[in-house]
Structures are given as structure tokens and as C-alpha cells.
Amino acid sequence: MPNDEEQLSSPEPAAAADGAVPAQRSGHGAKIALIAVLLALAAGAYATWLHYRDRVSSDDAQVDGHIAAIAPQIAGNVLEVLVTDNQEVKAGQALVRIDPRDFEARVNIAKAELARAESQLRAARAVVPWTDETTESGAAAASAQLADAGAELERARLGFEQASGSDLAYAEANVRVKQANDDRARADLARMKPLAEKAEISQLQYDSYVAAARVAESDLQAARERLASAQKDAAIRKAALDAAQSRVGQAKAGLEGSLANRKQVDIRSADAGTAAAAVEQARANLAAAELQLSYATIASPVDGVVTRKSVEAGQIVAPGQGLMTVIPLRGTWVTANFKETQLANVHPGQRAEIHVDMYGQSVQGRVDSVAGATGSRLSLLPPENATGNFVKVVQRIPVKILVEESGGFILRPGMNADVTIFTK
Question: How many domains does the chain have?
């Protein structure tokens, strides 16, 4: 018979064998649970990969817009400031008025200068035809006088030639003939006188010789007087010829002066051109003065909200001095800075989702463009990698996202946003 120790120890192996089955079962269940968890994680990771494989995201994004800096273009005293900070304004709405009196005076001066220049132009244009007509008539009269003087010179020349030629030669020949007749009559009388004294001829015959001698002497004296008259006439004709030549010279000088006066037409035409240029200059000065006057009222260039107003009535402002800023609340876009490793498949036209931090909601957008350089390259102090202290850092490139559907939200420049681009 077994002893008590054997009886007491014999049930222990059986109890140990009964407890091994539940332990094995619990270990098998843990393995199945671990496998299920791993499968769930793998499925979740695969689903996440499927979800994010065709999209890239960046939380480095801000709303941008065309911010309009308001500054005067002229110097002057501010009469009135018509807006306050954070006030909504429309394009063309007056913001600031500068004292316009100085510029109005300049406009009035420019108008007076223009009126004077136009008056001078009208006078210059009226002088041109008058000068043309007067100089043309003067030239015609001078030409006629020259023709008359030429004709008179020709007549004087013919008269002088006749007086100094045939008429004078005839008178000289007549004197010679009369001289010969006188000499013959004297000779005949000298021969007859002794005969008459001797009474060889009658007194009647002698008286006839005396009369013939007297007639011959008278004829000679008359011939000599006609010769002297012919010589005086030739001298007169010579003086007339010289006078005619002088008148021809005067007529030529008058014609040359008239032709020179014709150049006055060109001079007057040039004066009219100068007057016309003066009118254009006066008009330009008036336009410049009116433009300066228009700058006295500073208007908003866009619809937006007034921000950073720093001007007050009575203040003296200078050209280019910042007065305020107008922030447009329409037409804004988002600039998202993506890592360079994210942009391999990004191109304009792709759909984008913009999550606005202020509203906690998303709006729809579309990729407009990708910047041509990284943000660090466009910064004020771009990195210099040639110094030897180079650390490779992933760069970010700005991407412009246009807002297509704002959902009624107002996107103000500078607001933060998260951007997701769907590459497919």
C-alpha cells in the first residue's frame, strides 16, 4: 500500500497537467490579438499613404494682398482728413485734402500765359499774309520801275548816239562848207576891190560881191552856232544818258530790296511757328499746373480698409511722406512656402485647400504660380555658401494660391493658413 506521502503527492501531477491547457490558450489569443493590431496598423498606414500620396501640405502660409500705401505727391498744409483708422473706403473716395490755394494761383497764371500766347499766335499768323502781299506788290512795282528805267536808258542812249554822231558830224561838215564859202566870198571880194577902185567893174558888181561875202560870213556864223548847239545837245543827251543809267541802278537796288523784303515772309512764318510752339508750351504748363492742383485731393486707389493713419489736419506734409495704408479685403491670395522636396509634382492650375486659422474652416483655391527662387535667396541677406561653413538646409519656395471660393469669409493680409495642394 502506498504510504501517506505518496498518497499526498500523487494528485499533484494531475493538477499541473490540468493548468497547462488554459496557459497555452491565453498565449495563442495574445498572438492573434497582436497580429490583428499589426494588421489594423498596417491597414491604417496604407490608408493614410493612399490619402496623402497625391497631396502636399504646408502650415507656413499667409494671406497676401495689394497693400496701397497712401502718400502725397505735393508738399503743403493738410486742410482736412476725411477718414479714420479701420474705416472702409471705396476706390476714388477722398482721404485727405491739402491746401490748394498756391496751386490754384499757378493754374490761373498758366491760363493767362496761355491766353497771351494764343493772342501772339493770332497776330503772328495775321502778319504773314499781310507781309506776303505787301512785299509781293513792292517787288512788282520795283520790277516795273526797273523796266521803265531800262527803256528810258535805251532812249537816252539812242538820243546820245544820234546827237554825238550824225547830228554833230552834220553840223561840223556844214561849218566847214560855210567856212569854205566864206573864204571864197572873201577872196572874191578881195580881188574885186582893186578892180572897183580902178573902175574896171561897176559899183553894182562890186556891191554884189560885198553882199555875197556878208552872206557867206553870216552863213558861217550860223553854221558855227548850229555846231555849238549840236555840241550842247550832245552834252545834254550825255547827261540824260548818265541820269538814265543812274535811275536803272536805283531801280535795280529797289528790286533787290523788294526781293530781300520777300524773305520777311519766311521770317514772319517762322515767328508764327515760334508763337505756335509757345502756345503748346503754355498748354503743357497749364496741364501740369492743373495736375498739381488735382494732387491736392488724395483719393483711395482701391476698395479697402484704412490702416496706420498717421496724418492730422494742420500738418505740413512732403511728397512721398506716408500718411496711411489702404488694405484691400477683396482680391487677396495666399502665399504658401513649401519645402523644395514637396514641389516636384506641383504646377499651376492644381486644386488647393486653404484652412484659415482665424475661422477654423477651409476655403477652396487653385495654384496660380510657383516663385522663381527660394525665400532665402530673395531675402535681404541671402546665404553665402562659398565661405566653407556650409550646412545643407531644406529650402522653401513660395507658391501663390488664388482663392476661388472664400465661403463668405474675409481674408485679411497677414492671416495664417494651412495649405494643401492636390497634385492629382
Answer: 2
Q: Which of 271, 304, 322 is the last residue of a domain?
A: 322
pLDDT tens digits, residue range 279-304? Answer: 999 999 999 999 999 999 999 999 99
CA distances from 124 to 16, 93, 278 (A): 137, 46, 12
Question: Where do we find the cell 488694405?
Answer: 327
Domain that holds residue 255: 103-294
Rounded to an integer, what distance in angstroms lies between the CA atom of residue 251 and that of residue 257? 10
Q: Are residues 93 and 212 in the same domain?
A: no
Please give the helix or strand (H or E) that residue 169 lies within, else none: helix 168-197
Interval 336-340 mean pLDDT: 93
Dihedral sign (CA 104, 108, 113, 115)? positive
Q: Are residues 282 and 183 in the same domain?
A: yes
Give yes or no: residues 305 and 275 share one domain: no
CA 105 to each of CA 99, 102, 289, 290, 292: distance values in angstroms, whole numbers, following the listed order: 12, 5, 9, 10, 11
